[in-house]
Design a protein that fits this description.
This protein has four helices and two strands. With 81 residues, the protein is mostly helical. It has a two-stranded antiparallel ribbon. The protein binds iron/sulfur cluster (2 copies).
Length: 81
């Protein structure tokens, strides 16, 4: 019986740690500011207003981004990945 309870507790702990991992940190996109030329194409195609050019560089708002990859596809410099 104790083994069963121990196994149950371990499963519960594993489940908790998996669900606590930040999805935007693990799967989010980044902008290479050395490659970005500030053309604004990504801003125009983003359906969620999740990316904007600020001071010449695109900046992604991870809380709005839905990972549709339109900005990745449109970027002429390959600066979003
Ligand atoms: S499309 Fe690419 S180069 Fe243009 S602003 Fe966006 S990230 Fe920068
Ligand atoms: S992946 Fe889609 S939602 Fe996220 S910033 Fe790019 S265009 Fe916007």
């Amino acid at each position: 019986m104790m083994r069963y309870i121990e196994a149950l507790l371990i499963c519960f702990a594993l489940l908790l740690s998996a669900s606590c991992a930040g999805p935007t940190e693990a799967t989010g996109l980044v902008v290479d500011t050395t490659a970005c030329i500030g053309c604004g194409e990504c801003e125009k195609v983003c359906p969620y207003n999740a990316i904007e050019v600020i001071d010449g560089d695109a900046v992604i708002n991870p809380s709005l981004c839905r990972l549709c990859y339109r900005c990745v596809e449109i970027c002429p410099e390959g600066a979003v990945y």
